[in-house]
Design a protein that fits this description.
eight-stranded parallel sheet; alpha/beta; TIM Barrel
């Protein structure tokens, strides 16, 4: 496994396992499978409804806690100092651990400054090792960085070969924030797994389109959290550390960038209404 060092000195695996849209009933088995394959970073969230299952897997897996990197996120309905503080303690209890490695604000809505203050306090108390944000566009990220005491360690945003977030990446680097990808496979949209550019490059390295896409992100300094409920696919996604993409192949993948989200825009009022109306 390769690691990045966050702006507070904490090391984070460049490849993790995400449990978005994995049911609470199935999640425990999936996390145990992922840990068996070799993953040590697990990404969950209050809104996913499966923190308990992740906690069960942590308790049962037999991997020393210090070798694990556990991430969760505070949802919009828990925004604000008081609610966020209560929800963080609840997440800690559900995860059945004495500390959480990384906590992110899930969406840039509601009183996220109050949420961040609660996270800063937990960080200073030592039971959260790093804090950051998710889905913060460059304008929101810059605003937050300018007015908080602790610079976010991570910003987790939609990032894949069709939406490479090059401008956002520049601002994250400027402010010392680690770029993390959600949806590294674009959830299979635009025939992702059979894309001709990715599959042709894959033939050269005897790798799949998915493996080429993950390697591309890693070489660009982006942490990725692919998801699969199948153990063999988990293993395949993990097998990306035995090759390096040549510059001409990196350039070919860069050319796939359409610079637009395949899912939603926070600048769309209907999207904001939808997200802020969801309850965890």
């Amino acid at each position: 496994m390769e690691f990045v060092t966050l702006n507070n000195g904490i090391k984070m695996p460049v490849l993790g396992y995400g449990v978005y849209q994995v049911s609470n009933e199935e999640c425990e088995r999936c996390v145990l499978d992922a840990l068996c394959v070799g993953y040590r970073s697990i990404d969950t969230a209050q809104a996913y409804g499966n923190e308990e299952a992740v906690g069960n897997a942590i308790r049962k897996c037999g991997v020393p806690r210090e070798e694990l990197f556990i991430t969760t996120k505070v949802w919009v309905s828990n925004a604000g100092y008081k609610k966020a503080k209560e929800s963080l303690r609840e997440s800690l209890q559900k995860l059945q651990t004495k500390y959480i490695d990384l906590v992110l604000i899930h969406q840039p809505f509601g009183d996220y400054y109050g949420t961040y203050r609660a996270m800063e306090e937990a960080y200073q108390e030592g039971w959260i090792r790093a804090i950051g944000v998710s889905n913060f566009y460059p304008d929101r990220l810059v605003d937050l960085c300018r007015f908080v005491d602790i610079t976010p360690a991570v910003n987790q945003v939609e990032t894949h070969v069709f939406q490479q977030q090059q401008k956002a990446h520049e601002y994250m680097e400027k402010y010392g924030v680690q770029h993390e990808s959600w949806g590294p496979f674009a959830e299979g949209r635009k025939d992702f797994f059979t894309n001709s550019v990715l599959t042709e490059i894959g033939k050269k390295y005897r790798k799949t389109a998915a493996q080429i896409a993950l390697r591309f992100l890693i070489q660009n300094g982006v942490v990725a959290i692919p998801k699969s409920t199948h153990k063999d696919r988990m293993a395949q996604n993990f097998d990306v550390f035995d090759f390096v993409l040549a510059e001409e192949d990196m350039a070919a993948v860069r050319a796939l960038d359409e610079k637009e989200s395949l899912f939603f825009s926070h600048y769309d009022p209907a999207t904001v209404e939808m997200i802020t109306g969801l309850r965890r």
